[in-house]
Design goal:
Elements: E1 11-20, E2 23-32, E3 43-45, E4 61-67, E5 72-78
Parallel strand pairs: 1-3
Antiparallel strand pairs: 1-2, 2-4, 4-5
Length: 82
């Protein structure tokens, strides 16, 4: 987890598949429970249009990109602050 983020278990996690530069990736959005305005399980596999879209929130929202072929995290970061 990035600096300033809480432990991963504190977040509701949303994952979806995508492609970047022709490679399959998994995108993740982790949202602290009290920030999300809809019911959700701790781990959610969703279609891309159903991913939560939160434009600020600092480390209350963490964004992940995972390269499935290389089996490595490409990026993980907290959202910016408004």
């Amino acid at each position: 987890m990035p600096a300033g983020a809480r432990p991963v278990a504190d977040y509701l996690r949303f994952y979806t598949g995508d492609r970047k530069d022709g490679r399959p990736v998994v995108l993740g959005t982790f949202v602290l429970r009290d920030l999300l305005q809809r019911p959700a399980a701790p781990i959610n596999i969703v279609e891309k249009p159903d991913m939560p879209i939160i434009l600020d929130g600092g480390c209350a929202v963490v964004n992940l990109e995972f390269d499935t072929q290389r089996k490595q995290i490409v990026s993980i970061s907290c959202n910016g602050n408004a």
